[in-house]
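The records we work with from here on pair a chain with its fold. Each token is a code from a learned vocabulary of local backbone shapes. A record is reproduced here so that you can trace the correspondence yourselves:

_____
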Amino acid sequence: MTVSHHAILGLPRSGKTTFLAALWHVIDAGEVATQLTLDKLVGDHTYLNTIVESWRRCQEVPRTSMAAEEIVSIHVHETATGRKSVLRFPDLSGESFEHQYESRRCTQAYVASYEDEGGIMLFVNADRAVDGLTVTDLAPAVAGDPSVANVQATPWSPKVVPEQVRLVELLQFLQRPPFARRKRRVALAISAWDAVADPKPSPEEWLRREMPLLYQFLTNNPESFETRLYGISAQGGDVKTANRQALLQTTPSQRIQCVGPDVAPNDLTAPLIWLDGARK
């Protein structure tokens, strides 16, 4: 039986670790109906138990540094069809993705992780500062506005490049050697979906509005990427506010929000089911 190996891609603070904690709890606890059944976990159980315990207590999930990365793989099968898949979290910190963008280099292990059949879970965070400039932002400087005349220019570095530009570059790497050129499914998870103001747009509308370059890249490269978008709140709300007490009174799995096509309430496994659907 063919096994799909799905990869995780996302920059620091994009929600990967919190997603992993919530996903492991949902599959393992059996509090809500899911379409996947756990086969085994490969990786450091101690580390996983630590982040899951923080998640259950509605605490901020500890951020992973590059020096303390844990390679975690969750092996599951789809209950209805028996199809097996593996979700691999090779870089929970996201810092090695930043390093790859800056250095234009990657490891052989990273290349090998994309050789197997499978898709990509790509994470972006809705609760973030705007890190790009528009034509409107630049207009005062272009027009010679005296209020901006004495602003000191900051030397350029890769750190100041907008998130969506870096993500497009990381995806473009997959379109040329040493990576095998093939069509991949991309489940784009917009994390911290609870932070999106009401009335909430659809995940597609949000991406088109907030990250137009990334949206246009995915839309205009259908030969390389087939994309489906999901709005995900793995915690269910901001645990740094008074809302935490209400979250603590809710069954952990039922705090989760997942919005998108063919999604049952609280089921974080829906993006994985769609990624596996390429093998139907």
Q: What stands out?
A: The first strand starts at residue 3 and ends at 9.
